[in-house]
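Q: Here's a chain of 96 amino acids. Please give me its 3D structure as tokens.
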Amino acid sequence: MSGPRQLVEARWYELRPSHSGQPRTYTCPFCPRKLPAFNEHVLIRPEGSGENRRHAHIACVKKARAAGRLPSREEWLATQPRRPGFFARLFRRGAR
């Protein structure tokens, strides 16, 4: 996914509810429909990239999350290999 109105590929995304009184209209990155800023919607921010944030419909975000396309940081971290704990490293040194 890339392009001016598309969502940037990232390992994880920050999601937060949003709405505004501003007279702005956004385009949802998941569907071609317009999204008025004053409607309840979700702000999606890719890992470490504030300038690539996108506004999306709540229903579109729920669908993408259910399909596994918008993992949170916590969900991504749970899939990463863990470093051995302090005692495991300590006992490994003693076994040499």
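Q: Can you summarize the key feature?
A: Helices lie at 58-66, 73-78, 86-94.
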